[in-house]
């Protein structure tokens, strides 16, 4: 059934509820924008616009720089959190001293555990250069010392002394052998004893054969008796060799100690105030003395060709152990470091031990220990993004461990997860003094706060950014100053007063509030970037309002393909929608669709059918599992309102079916509960409603229309569909009165309202909306609803009487009595139907 709504609508309600064009958008006049320099000064004075709460929390966090006193910064995307945090921390760090440099040096006692030493800022590289120069000087002067005539003479004396003592030893032994009747002869296998013959020469074979058996036995016995003396002489010779080698080694060591000690003492005097470096230099001197061959190329000469090839392949430096690995240098810096680590992976945070490959073998040493962000920010501030940090779970675990222990360790992950323990370096941990600023979303904060007790202990200060700020003259001036500052910094064209005013209006649209401005500055500067492009395209000198509007319209055009396609489906009749005339049980609702960075609204045809029954309000979307919890709640409130409004007068013995026609996605939210209620009331009263009027707003149990979100998109969406199907001058939207301040409608809609071709009505109650939709006063609407409810009650009773009579015929007279009673007392019958 379709018909036009009844004429004679209460003119007073329509007049009072209708909104003027001036209420649909709060404009900003160019006169409200201060001169450029004044606006820039207003921005520079604050630096952070509209975030007083965040600024106070930030000051507290910076002032309370102590262990386990870190800061979590939370807020919507695009509010300038990262920029502000980095700039504010840098300003604060300018008043703090530059921290020490950190170096790793070779540990001569435990090579697998490099030693960490700290030096004043900039001195790390100086120390490294001093050590490199020291090694070069030791190498050069040691060679000179070992090639000197004095050293060679002393070395020759030691060798000659050995030879003389050895000759004297063997001379004595040979004399003793002659006395025993033997001569000594050196052979490749040792020293042999030969019987003495004629003329003092060894006995010939003939002479030995001429000897009798007893004489030969005597000679053999004498040789055996002399053997211990030979062995003793050999031992004495070995002792002489050891003494000679020891003397030569003492000469080399003494020379090396004297030469290197003098050079090392010069460096030691320079670093006398650093005990760890003094201790390291003492160990270095001992190592030089013990490894003189390194400096004299003797190891290079003795090494095999394969070993030399491996060294060249690995880029091995014989003197690498004496070098200094400057892990972190603050040379040239003027204040405490501030580091924003954009990729906080485990190794980027904690550092790593690198490896070099040679002939298929991976090797490492202390010079391959690399610093992480914690090392570079040590003594200052580290800024991280929570989302990026949590992408690497081990990075989060390692960061907590470092902050809790107050030291940063360089450990490769393969050491922690390898099934077979592998030998590697274990660099000495470095004391950690850093304040961490973690930037993230509310969801991440809530997750970490609930699931990670360490997070609560470490991040005790929360800096929360708001998405909006009051639209005061001061904030307007600051916002204009920010836009001018951004244009200068990015090399854009300057912003004219009317261009800044247009961006202020866009800011209020983002905030969805005439009394507020959005702090999502990223959205604003994107529009300004595009507006400057269009300004340059038309050859103008400054960004004007028309350029801002051009940018906004171009952005909408790039994103509204789906919106236009849906509108075409309405025009083609594929999607059914009436925007004129009247219909019973049908209301045009409005729903917002979000497609990533673009949101728009489409009308939804909401229909209701009622009949006598006991099921109450049944929602098709819920029955088909396409209703979200908020929407289900809205339908329950709708049913409660009907029971409270009409259940006092009569039993609600009816069934109703509600649905969003031609909607196949999940339906959620309660903003359509008002429209659904109006469709049910229309069906109950058999009252046609104006199809040119769309409705948005949720309803509570008391019949009050409550504010909803997306009001601008909903109004504009219905206007554009009406425009596509044909404006009649009677179309419009009913919206909650409490949403009026949220209106920042497109100028096209505002102009249509001003011309009278489109209308907006703001209502506070269900009665006001129904009077506008139906054209009847609420008393008449209530009368029709109650009449229909009573009619359905009677229908149910009539259906129940034959059933009771049949039951009485089968079971006796009790059923007739019950039927008669029901007929004599209708009110009780209605109560019985309700109870049933």
Q: How would the global form be characterised?
A: elongated
Q: What structural category arises from helix and sheet content?
A: alpha/beta
Rg, nearest Å: 49 Å
* Major sheet size, sense and barrel closure: 7 strands, mixed
Average pLDDT rating: 86
Record the strand order, biggest sheet.
22-23-21-20-25-28-29
Tally of alpha and pi helices: 33
> Roughly what percent helix?
40-55%
The low-pLDDT segments are: 1-9, 299-303, 809-836
Secondary structure tally: strands: 29
Terminal CA distance:
31 Å
Tell me what portion of residues adopts beta-strand conformation: 15-25%
By oligomeric state, this entry counts as single chain
Quick recap of the structure?
The protein has about 850 residues and is an alpha/beta fold. The strands form ten sheets. It has a seven-stranded mixed β-sheet, with helices on both faces. A five-stranded parallel β-sheet has the order 7-12-15-1-16.
């Amino acid at each position: 059934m379709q018909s036009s709504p009844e004429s004679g609508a209460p003119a007073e309600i329509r007049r009072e509820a209708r909104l003027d064009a001036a209420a649909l958008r709060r404009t900003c006049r160019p006169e409200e924008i201060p001169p450029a320099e004044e606006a820039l000064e207003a921005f520079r004075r604050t630096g952070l616009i509209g975030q007083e709460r965040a600024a106070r929390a930030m000051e507290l966090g910076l002032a309370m720089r102590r262990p386990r006193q870190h800061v979590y910064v939370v807020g919507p995307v695009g509010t300038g959190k990262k920029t502000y945090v980095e700039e504010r921390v840098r300003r604060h760090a300018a008043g703090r001293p530059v921290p020490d440099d950190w170096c790793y040096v070779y540990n001569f006692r435990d090579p697998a555990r490099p030693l960490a030493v700290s030096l004043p800022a900039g001195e790390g590289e100086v120390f490294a250069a001093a050590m490199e120069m020291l090694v070069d000087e030791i190498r050069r002067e040691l060679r000179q010392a070992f090639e000197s005539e004095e050293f060679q003479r002393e070395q020759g004396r030691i060798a000659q002394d050995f030879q003389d003592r050895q000759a004297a030893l063997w001379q004595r032994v040979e004399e003793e052998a002659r006395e025993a009747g033997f001569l000594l002869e050196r052979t490749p296998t040792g020293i042999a004893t030969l019987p003495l013959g004629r003329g003092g020469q060894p006995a010939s074979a003939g002479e030995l054969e001429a000897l009798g058996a007893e004489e030969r036995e005597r000679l053999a016995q004498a040789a055996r008796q002399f053997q211990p003396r030979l062995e003793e002489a050999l031992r004495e010779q070995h002792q002489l060799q050891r003494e000679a080698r020891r003397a030569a080694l003492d000469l080399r060591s003494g020379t090396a100690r004297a030469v290197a000690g003098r050079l090392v003492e010069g460096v030691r005097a320079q670093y006398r105030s650093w005990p760890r470096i003094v201790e390291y230099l003492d160990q270095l001197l001992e190592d030089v003395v013990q490894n003189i061959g390194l400096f004299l190329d003797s190891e290079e000469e003795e090494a095999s060709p394969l070993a030399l090839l491996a060294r060249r392949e690995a880029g091995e430096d014989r003197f690498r152990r004496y070098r200094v690995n400057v892990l972190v240098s603050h040379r040239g810096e003027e204040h405490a470091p501030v580091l924003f680590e954009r990729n906080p992976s485990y190794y980027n945070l904690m550092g790593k031990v690198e490896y070099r490959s040679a002939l298929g073998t991976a090797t490492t040493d202390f010079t391959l220990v690399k610093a992480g962000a914690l090392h570079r920010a040590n003594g200052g501030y580290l800024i991280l993004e929570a989302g990026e940090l949590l992408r690497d779970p081990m990075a989060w675990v390692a960061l907590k461990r470092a902050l809790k222990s107050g030291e940063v360790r360089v450990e490769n992950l393969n050491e922690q997860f390898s099934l077979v323990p592998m030998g590697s370096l274990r660099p000495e941990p470095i004391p950690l003094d850093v304040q961490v600023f973690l930037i993230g979303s509310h969801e991440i904060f809530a997750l970490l706060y609930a699931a990670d007790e360490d997070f609560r202990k470490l991040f005790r200060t929360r800096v929360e950014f708001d998405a909006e700020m009051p639209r005061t003259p001061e904030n307007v001036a600051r916002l204009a100053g920010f836009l001018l500052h951004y244009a200068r910094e990015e090399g854009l064209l300057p912003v004219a007063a009317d261009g800044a005013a247009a961006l202020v209006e866009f800011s209020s649209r983002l905030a969805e509030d005439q009394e507020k401005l959005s702090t999502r500055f990223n959205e604003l500067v994107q529009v300004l970037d595009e507006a400057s492009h269009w300004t340059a395209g038309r050859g103008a000198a400054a960004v004007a309002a028309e350029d801002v509007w051009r940018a906004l319209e171009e952005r909408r055009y790039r994103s509204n393909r789906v919106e236009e396609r849906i509108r075409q489906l309405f025009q083609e009749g594929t999607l059914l929608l009436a925007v004129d005339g009247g219909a019973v049980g049908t209301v045009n609702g409005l729903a917002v669709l979000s497609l990533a960075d673009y949101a728009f609204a489409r009308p939804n045809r909401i229909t209701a059918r009622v009949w006598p029954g006991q099921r109450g309000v049944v929602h098709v979307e819920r029955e088909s599992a396409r209703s979200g919890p908020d929407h289900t709640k809205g339908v329950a409130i709708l049913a409660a309102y009907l029971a409270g409004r009409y259940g006092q007068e009569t039993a609600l013995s009816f069934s109703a079916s509600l649905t969003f026609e031609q909607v196949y996605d999940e339906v959620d939210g309660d903003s359509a509960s008002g429209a659904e209620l109006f469709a049910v009331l229309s069906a109950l009263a058999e009252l046609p409603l104006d199809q040119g009027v769309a409705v948005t707003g949720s309803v509570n149990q008391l019949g009050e229309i409550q504010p909803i979100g997306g009001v601008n998109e909903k109004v504009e969406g219905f206007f554009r569909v009406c425009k596509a199907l044909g404006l009649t001058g009677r179309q419009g939207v009913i919206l909650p009165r409490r949403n009026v301040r949220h209106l920042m409608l497109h100028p096209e809609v505002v102009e249509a309202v001003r011309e009278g071709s489109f209308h907006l009505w703001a209502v506070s109650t269900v009665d006001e909306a129904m009077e506008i939709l139906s054209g009847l006063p609420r008393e008449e609407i209530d009368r029709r609803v109650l009449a229909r409810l009573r009619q359905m009650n009677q229908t149910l009773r009539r259906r129940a009487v034959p059933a009771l009579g049949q039951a009485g015929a089968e079971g006796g007279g009790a059923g007739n009595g019950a039927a008669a009673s029901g007929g004599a007392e209708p009110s009780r019958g209605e109560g019985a139907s309700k109870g049933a």
